[in-house]
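phytanoyl-CoA dioxygenase
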Amino acid sequence: VSSLCRSYTLDNDVLTEEQRQFYEDNGYLLIKKLVSDEDIERFREEFVRICRREVRPPGAMIMKNESLRSQYGQSEKAVNKVQDFQEDKELFRYCTLPEV
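Tokens:
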């Protein structure tokens, strides 16, 4: 194990050295099956509802990739980010999962 400069992670017994280094190098870490398929489906459905403006959490911002508009129109497939969604009870539940 090399002594690499770490600026984003702290020593811990949760992540492997390889996971920590991947996060340091790339800024994200994918851990498959961390959240149940059932929860993922519920979060996906709520995301789609927000994108379609069926629900409107106060303060939420929907960011669209305009280059995808010709391909997907106004569908959720053109949305690349929903931010400030903390007022949406279901979607914010993701942030409070013990696994996360």
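The chain has one domain: 7-99.
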